[in-house]
């Protein structure tokens, strides 16, 4: 299976996918990364891709007159690589109708909270502020909402008292350790076994 990974930042989730495929081989894993895309340039996520010779592209909102035209441009940039799956790994933009018309039902996102709790761009901080005792990460299919698509897998992390002292940095790192493993495991399973989405239920044979 062909996967395109979308990033916006450090790209450690992308790196986990690169490392796993390097370790086990794309045949055994069931997928190969054919391109990495970003909504901004100059980020570590793109450097990680370039370091291993993966094709990259940048699609910036500010380069397009409207949000819809950005969404269409992103969809076209992704479509050029003919992916079977699109993995949003720390991609911080909400995709729109055009993108979903082409890649809905085969775009997977990872979120650093236990959805439906704490959706959006500040899931770690929001869980802390709420006083949650456990939080975690969610790997889910993307639908037309924000972090609302069918859940594939979740991982749980205990919140510690000291997590309230650094704005969530340590907690987010602990979440990301689980998140990277979960994403690698889920993407491999989807690629090797296929899947069915019925309403909110995802089944992987
Ligand atoms: C991940 O925790 C992701 O869930 C969140 O931002 C983080 C991205 O990390 N949206 P990285 O860019 O993969 O290191």
UniProtKB/TrEMBL annotation:
Underlying gene: purN
EC number: 2.1.2.2
Protein name: Phosphoribosylglycinamide formyltransferase
Keyword flag Transferase: yes
Formyl transferase N-terminal domain span: 1-187
NCBIfam families recorded: PurN
Pathway: Purine metabolism; IMP biosynthesis via de novo pathway; N(2)-formyl-N(1)-(5-phospho-D-ribosyl)glycinamide from N(1)-(5-phospho-D-ribosyl)glycinamide (10-formyl THF route): step 1/1
UniProt superkingdom: Bacteria
Record's catalysed reaction(s): N(1)-(5-phospho-beta-D-ribosyl)glycinamide + (6R)-10-formyltetrahydrofolate = N(2)-formyl-N(1)-(5-phospho-beta-D-ribosyl)glycinamide + (6S)-5,6,7,8-tetrahydrofolate + H(+)
Single annotated GO MF: phosphoribosylglycinamide formyltransferase activity
Catalytic center residues: 111
Residues the record lists as binding N(1)-(5-phospho-beta-D-ribosyl)glycinamide: 11-13
Annotated positions for site Raises pKa of active site His: 147
InterPro entries (alphabetical): Formyl_transf_N, Formyl_transf_N_sf, GART, GART_AS
Protein's UniProt keywords contain Transferase: yes
Pfam families hit by this protein: Formyl_trans_N
Alphabetical keyword list: Purine biosynthesis, Transferase
Family designation: Belongs to the GART family.
Coiled-coil residues: none
Function: Catalyzes the transfer of a formyl group from 10-formyltetrahydrofolate to 5-phospho-ribosyl-glycinamide (GAR), producing 5-phospho-ribosyl-N-formylglycinamide (FGAR) and tetrahydrofolate.
Positions of (6R)-10-formyltetrahydrofolate binding: 67, 92-95, 109
